[in-house]
Amino acid sequence: MGTASLSVGPRVRRITLDAAGHTLSALLSAPEGPPRATVVALHGAGMSAGYFDGGAQPDASLCALGAHLGFAVLAVDRPGYGDSATGLPEGLDLAGQARVLRAALDRFGAEYDIGGGTFLLAHSFGGKLALTLAAEAPPAGLLGMDISGCGHRYAPRSAELLAGPERARWKYNWGRLALYPPATFQHSATLVKPIPERELSAASDWPGVFDALAPHIRVPVRLTFAEHELWWRHDADALDDLRARLSAAPRVVVDRQPDAGHNISLGRTARSYHLRALAFFEECLPERDGP
After folding, report:
1. Counting beta carbons within 10 angstroms of the beta carbon of residue 58, is it exposed (0 to 12), middle (13 to 18) or buried (19 or more)?
2. pLDDT at 166
3. Are strands 72-76 and 118-123 parallel, antiparallel or unpaired?
4. pLDDT tens digit string along 72-127?
5. For the stretch 83-121, what's the b/e string if a residue is b when 16 or more beta carbons lie within 10 angstroms of its beta carbon?
6. 3-class DSSP state for residue 222?
7. In Å, how far from its chain's centre is CA 73?
8. Which is nearest to 146 in space by CA: 11, 232, 41?
9. Close Cβ partners of 136 (under 8 Å, ≥ 6 residues apart)
10. Of 229, 186, 149, 194, which Cα lies nearest the Cα of 57?
């Protein structure tokens, strides 16, 4: 399937959602008929919802690919980004973001057909929010989640870099230039946003937060680590410990994405990753299509 079959398909449009006194901006793409389910996509720190709409290569768009395969895709500007940035200049902690996002998803479900349920697809800090949401305030009909670029134990030097200047974090956020299509960094200038202070200040607390949340997650979970992921430990011992802590999840899948850096959905292998994530969601649907 070439890129043209996606680019002429379902359109991606901007919408806003009222959420607990805040307005969240989002991108929405939908199939031509009723959606099989809705994929809620949550971007990482310093990015925006456009992270999931293709980067420098059209066939990398999760929004377009998901709709092409029968899913509605709602890529949300997390609280503190997009339309909510002015009212939340310092952002919110994870619990606050989960509360606002849950209100936004409740409103979305009242106004739009979500199909057979909801999936969360999240990257990096968005993965922390997805795990918090699933543990503390799961949206209606949550069926499963796919998280990339987020583990439970930081790699050496990560805490030091989190507290340092943005320039020092660049390599960890991207990795080798060859992992991304030409023009990625020019195109991504429109996607990159300031990181709210409360996200940065709380980042080092994540290992303990994860340990408290993990036993309360009761849906299938898939975690993807880029081959060249630098922020997180993803050696065999760390991954065994991660799986064990998700003790209530009915299924835990840990995968690796070859030839990818931290920002998988903007890289050369973005389409491969999105296809794998959507295949996992396909397996989680309560009823398969067919006779």
Report:
1. middle
2. 72
3. unpaired
4. 999 999 999 999 999 999 999 999 999 999 999 999 999 999 999 999 999 999 99
5. ebbeebeebbbbebbbbbbbbbbbbbeeebebbbbbbbb
6. strand
7. 11
8. 41
9. 95, 98, 213, 216
10. 186
Question: How many CB atoms are closer than 10 A to CB 166?
Answer: 12
Q: What is the CA radius of gyration of the chain?
A: 17
C-beta neighbour count of 2 within 10 angstroms:
8
Which tokens in the block code for residue 208?
A: 């303990």
- CB neighbour class for 189 (10 Å; exposed up to 12, middle 13-18, buried from 19): exposed
Instruction: Say whether 36 sits in a helix, a strand or coil.
Output: coil
Distance CA 51, CA 233 (A): 24
C-alpha 278, offset from chain centre: 13
Q: Is this prediction's pTM over 0.85?
A: yes
Greatest extent of the chain over all pairs of C-alpha atoms, in Å: 57
Q: What is the DSSP letter of 189?
A: G
